[in-house]
Amino acid sequence: MEQSESPFDSFRVIIKLLTITGFYEIESSRKYVRAIHQAYRIFVIFIMLAFAIQHYIYTFQVADQDDKLYGLIIGSPQINFMVKILTVHFKYGRIRELHVLIKDPIFSSTNKKDLEYIQRNNVAMQMLGKSIYYCMTVAAVTLTLVFIFKRIEDPVNASVPSYVPFDTTSTIGYSISVCLEVTTIFWIGFGQSAADCAVACYYSQARTQLKIIKYNLEHIFDNEDEESILMEHDTSSNVRPKYIDEVNGNIKTKFISFIERYKMVDWYVTEISSIFDTSITCQLISSTLATCLVSYMLSLLEIFSVMFLHLLVCLVYFKMQAFIYCFFGQLVEDESKSINDAMYFSDWLSVSPRFRRYIIISMTRWTKPLTPRVSTIVPINFVTFASIVNSSYRLYTFMKSSHIA
Predict the structure, then answer these.
(1) TM segments (predicted)?
(2) pTM over cut 0.90
(3) For 314, which of 231, 329, 351, 357 is 20 to 30 Å away at the CA?
(4) DSSP 3-state assignment of 290?
(5) Phi/psi of residue 374, each to 5°?
(6) Does residue 138 belong to any structural domain of this protein?
(7) What is the phi/psi pair of residue 378, to 5°?
């Protein structure tokens, strides 16, 4: 059939963002364009490294405890950004292999229902990519308002949580430092969010492929030419009834193709977890710590204040970073668990005992779900997300009780 949409179309918006922020290489036939962009990617790493150093210099130098906590909160995404962008730089060859597989015909549609699954996933992932623009705009606006109101409330002591080699007590100096801070954090937010959504897109593609496999396995014995299948015969005759796989040799070929497709999805999910293992682990740990710090600071602030609103946005952002991994990882696990159900609900009685043995062997393999993991043991699912929330609350309770004491 004519392929009107490719599974790789779901990555268009995300890859564009990752290219702009210096994560992914630019796709261009011009050598000098690729060389310039490669230099830009290296430049981004040094700029963000310098920016992170500035923040931690400020955090260790400032005397006020609340400013220290806020410095740690703002500094957390910078560490994650560095880990993620370095992961992509050092493992970009393996990421290219993922892209080659996604573009391979083995992941393409073979019927209208397959194409429908691919189109739905493409629309959903493109919407996810576009949501980054809106979320980061809201975060940048609230951060800017925080600095403006801090300046209005306390013109003398208002400061930006970053070390700068010039005086920020003047209006011009303070404005310049605010512009540098907001612009860079805005850039980091775009890059981080795009990197998180990229992993989500990879897992979502695995889920889509599993849905395609499920549908085709459930209907693999449907819509065949029943007249050519002698399931009924004359009782006076000794002719054995023919099974569907004996009449139609394509059945076995199709079944083998879905087994191969599943094997590629299995490799694909394992490879995603292996490539992004360090960055996902760092993200889950930092989300736990950052959520604890933000919750602690929120408990000390007035509800009707710009700083409270800003930290609330940060809290949602940190939680969403962990949730997006666990959500899509859970979808992959749930989809893979139902492969055997799809096979069972097919018309497997219409195939020969020999073919049924093939089915049983395959179902034995499909019994083990495809569970994305980090550090080879920690599953990326709702159980892990619940543990992160629980750990954050315990740390918050400890800090709050220590503060009261």
Answers:
(1) 39-57, 69-87, 131-149, 293-318
(2) no
(3) 329
(4) helix
(5) -120, 145
(6) yes
(7) -90, 115
